[in-house]
Amino acid sequence: MKKHFKIAVLPGDGIGPEIIESALKVLDVISKKYGITFEYKHGLVGGAAIDETGDPLPPETLKICKESDAVLFGAVGGEKWDNLPTDKRPEKGLLRIRKELELFANIRPAKAYAPLLSSSPLKEEVIKGVDLVVLRELTGDVYFGEPRGREVRNGERVGYNTMIYYEHEIKRIAKVAFEMARNRRKKVTSVDKANVLEVSGLWREVVNEVHADYLDVDLEHMYVDNCAMQLIRRPKDFDVIVTGNIFGDIISDEAGALTGSLGMLPSASIGERYAFYEPIHGSAPDIAGKGIANPIATILSAAMMLEITCKLPQAARDIEKAVEKVLEDDYRTADIWSPGTKKVNTAEMTEEIIKRL
N or C: at which end does the chain have fewer Cβ atoms within 10 angstroms? Predict the structure, then answer.
């Protein structure tokens, strides 16, 4: 088993540096417990990189990422950089990393923690027991399809984008979905719009073909509009949802909102060679530097790194159980606090998790 891992650490902007610091403290405990070592290399990205170099993704940062086993990422963006040209904004650094590292699969778990059920906008009996994953194809579809652009036709402005998928892009994301489901509850829901879109017709056809190699896993197809409704009506029925880039963008946010707080939600983006781990929340510049950010999403992203990149599923479970125990013991950061629970800051929440490791 591999014992040494090179990790690119990209804190980014806003609360990014604070929550990344929490994740590294937790990883240090895991390092001692499991006899593994992490070699961290820090890089600039987003607004911090713009301020220093004029580029949201400097070549040196990309080099660090490509020489690492995994990338641990904080968050980017903020009002300070909102008026820059689109291609120079902090978020462009994130998009370029995904493209350069060929990260084709975005994995976003959504789990309802029992002590936080009251935080969800849904009734407790609907949300209790929810444990699903949205698997979003990340490098194709309408976001990257060509041709795209704006022009004038017959005297009026027109904007257009191309929704396109190649067979191999669908195959590889479908394989990830079925492999993942094999280690969970053995059910895949493939989401498309095959009743209207030719590209979705191909998507469904290819997913069915891949399924032939995974007959131990149940497969259902669902139109995206129906999926959006069923996620609210019966979220417990889902295990692994696999879908294209634009549908996945929307469905993963909806699934995340079910659990009540974005501060709890980790994610991973993986490719054939590289893997990238980040919390799904933003940089929250309004609370940056106040030490009150919720570090749990980033700590759970580090847990995903331990499972996927480091092949240490037990270490990942240790972190998840520690987080659950802290919540059961009523410790809360401001975003998930409710009367009768103990409000703690970023550092205190991190220490409580470490105590339970």
Answer: N
